[in-house]
Amino acid sequence: MKKLLIPIMLSSVSILLMACSEDVKKNGEHVDSEENKSTEEDVLASDSRDESANSDSSEEAEPADSDAEPSSQSGDNQSKSTEETTLSQYSSKEIEYARVWLQVIGNEDATELNVRQISAGEAVNPYDEHSAVYPENVIVLAGDIVADGTVTYSGNGDGTINIYNIPSHWPSAQQLEVSMKEYTKKIISNTEKVYINPGDDEAVLELIEKLSS
Predict the structure, then answer these.
(1) How much is the pLDDT for 178?
(2) Alpha carbons 92 and 210: distance in angstroms, whole number
(3) How do 113-118 and 138-143 pair as beta strands?
(4) Mean pLDDT across the chain
(5) For the purposes of burial, counting CB atoms within 10 Å of the CB of 183, is it exposed (0-12), middle (13-18) or buried (19 or more)?
C-alpha cells in the first residue's frame, strides 16, 4: 500500500509544480507586456514633448528674423553718419569753395584748386593803376592752369554769392572803347547773384582734397 502511495504522491507533486510553473510563466508574460506597453507610452510621450519643444523653438526664432531689418537700417544710419562726419571734418569755407567751383565752373578734373583772398579796396585790374577797386572782400578760385577755369565772388552768408565777371585775360587800354576805370567799374556794378546748391558730397570731398591756398 505504501509503495502505491509514494508514486501517487510524487505524481501529484509533479502536477502541482508544473501548474505553478505555468502560472509564473503567465505572470512573467503579463509583466513583460505591461512593461512593453509602459515603454511605448513613454516613447510616445517623449516624441510629443520633442515636437512641442521644436514648435516653441520655431516660434521663438521668428522674432529674431524680424529683427534683421532694424539691424540693416541701423547699419544704413551708421553709414550715413560716417559720411556726414567725414564732410564735417572740413571747415565751412573749404566746403563753400568746393561747392562754388562745382556749380559755377563744373570742372571736377582739375588737379588742383587754388584759393586767393582779395581785400576790399584792392584794384579790380591789378595790372592798371586806373582800375576801379573792389567794394568788398572777394575770393578767387582757380585751377592749376588757365584752361581749368577761374571764378571771383563774394559770399552773402545766406547760401548765395555775388559773381564778378572778371576776364581771364585783361584787355589793354588800346583795346577798350572806354577807359579802364569805366570798364572795371562796370564789372563791380554788374555782379550776378547765384544760389549755391549743396551738390554731391563725394564730389565736394574730392575737390576739398585738391585745395591749395
Answers:
(1) 95
(2) 16
(3) antiparallel
(4) 78
(5) buried
pLDDT greater than 80 at residue 195 = yes
pLDDT band for position 88 (50/70/90)? confident
> In the predicted model, is pLDDT for residue 31 greater than 50?
no
Question: What would the grid cell of residue 3 be?
Answer: 509503495
Q: Could you say which DSSP state residue 133 is in?
A: B
Domain ranges of the chain: 1-66, 92-212
CB 94 within 8 A of CB 208: yes
- What is the residue-wise DSSP string for 58-89? HHHHHHHHHTHHHHHHHHHHHHHHHHHHHHHT
What is the number of helices (H) and of strands (E) in the chain?
Answer: 5, 6
Pick 18 or 175 by higher pLDDT.
175
CA pair distance 151, 118, nearest whole angstrom: 13
d(CA 121, CA 127): 15
182 residue type, one letter: E
Contact 205, 86 (CB under 8 A): yes
What lies within 8 Å, CB to CB, of 100 at 6+ separation is: 141, 151, 153, 161, 196
The length of the chain, given as a count of residues:
213
pLDDT over threshold 60, residue 80: no
Cα separation, 75 vs 78, in Å, equals 5
C-alpha cell recorded at residue 142: 582757380
